[in-house]
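Q: How would the structure tokens look for this protein?
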Amino acid sequence: MSQTILETAPLECPECAARLAITPTLAGEVLDCRGCGAELEVVSLTPLLVQLAPHAEEDWGE
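A: Here is the predicted structure in token form.
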């Protein structure tokens, strides 16, 4: 599981290492990386942690 920790260093995308300029307000919020388009989920606000968001599976009405 890829995670990035922000304390005093800039936050980076765990997929492409692009710098992220984000101000999330909620844990669980999903953001898009402007560098690669990866969906990132905020897993913690203090310290700020993001990881690749899980992909939702299609249920096809089942």
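Residues 4-9 have pLDDT under 50 and may be disordered.

DSSP finds no helices and six strands in the chain.

Upvote if useful.
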